[in-house]
Amino acid sequence: MNTSGSRERILGKLLAAAPAPGMSLRELEDRIDAHHARGPLRGASSTELADTLARVMASVRTDVLRADAHSWPALLAQKLAAAGAATLLLDTASAEGAALAAALPPGVRPMSFDRPLEAWKDQLFAGVDAGFTVARSGIADTGTLVLAPDAGTPRTVSLVPPLHVALVYASTLHADLHAAMHAEAWSAGMPTNLVLVSGPSKTSDIQQTLAYGAHGPRALWVLIIDDEAVGDAA
């Protein structure tokens, strides 16, 4: 293998793509925008983006569900009960959290993150089976959810329980990271903390033995709400 030749080819491509001397920031941004505008998912409908997100996330051991805006609480409640989840951490002050809590059967107890972490850390790490979050948006190209933690749903909800259940609306999906950053104006007011989730927690040792749950949830369920028809009607 000619590593020297490979190195020269890579460096040549980088130099060819480098901005010309004297190029303004605006010109550079336009060049970057033009490059990403040719992405294969640009111009795709929310249904097409949802199909792509589902396919990519399923390929990395994510359990993907599809539902409409009315039937999802019952569907998710039934699946949680069937999985033996006895406790579910969620924000009942949110519309989605309240809807899911109301649909839960007696065997699944909803819990709110309403105390300082130090006051119930042992219970949180040992006695909570699942955490429920609502994604701010999603990135179809990489199969990624964008979470914006807040007081009702801090990062702990998506990181500590062994099962992370995330809801994302198809109407909030973006083609790629560049599209998400522009559409949501991250540069103008990016939250202090965004969590990007592209599958359950996993790690691998030097022998490439893959293990799940080492640094976070070992299982991830993603519920995609197909709300394109609702948005079109509105």
What gap, in angstroms, lies between the N and C termini? Answer: 59 Å
Level-1 CATH class name of the largest domain: Alpha Beta
- Structural class comes to alpha/beta
Low-confidence stretches: 230-234
Number of helices: 10
How much is the average pLDDT? 88
Gyration radius (Cα, Å) is 21 Å
Q: Tell me what portion of residues adopts beta-strand conformation.
A: 15-25%
Number of strands: 12
**What level of helicity do the residues show?**
25-40%
Which fold name is given in CATH as the topology of the largest domain?
A: Rossmann fold
| Apparent shape | globular
Oligomer: single chain
Strand and helix layout:
Blueprint: H1 3-17, H2 25-36, H3 46-58, E1 63-67, H4 72-82, E2 87-89, H5 95-103, E3 109-111, H6 121-127, E4 130-134, E5 137-139, E6 144-147, H7 155-159, E7 163-169, E8 173-174, H8 177-183, H9 186-189, E9 195-197, E10 202-204, E11 210-212, E12 219-225, H10 228-233
Parallel strand pairs: 1-12, 2-3, 2-4, 4-7, 5-8, 7-12
Antiparallel strand pairs: 5-6, 6-9, 10-11
Describe the structure.
Helix content is 38%, strand content 21%. Residues 230-234 have low confidence and may be disordered. It folds into 2 domains: 1-38, no CATH class; 44-233, 3-Layer(aba) Sandwich (Rossmann fold), CATH 3.40.50.10420. A 6-stranded parallel beta sheet has the order 1-12-7-4-2-3, sandwiched between helices. It has a 4-stranded mixed beta sheet with strand order 8-5-6-9. Strands 10-11 form a two-stranded antiparallel sheet. Helix 4 (72-82) crosses helix 5 (95-103). The longest helix is centred in the first third of the chain and has 15 residues, at 3-17. The protein contains 10 helices and 12 strands. It has 234 residues and is of the alpha/beta class. The chain has helices at 3-17, 25-36, 46-58, 72-82, 95-103, 121-127, 155-159, 177-183, 186-189, 228-233, and strands spanning 63-67, 87-89, 109-111, 130-134, 137-139, 144-147, 163-169, 173-174, 195-197, 202-204, 210-212, 219-225. The termini are far apart.
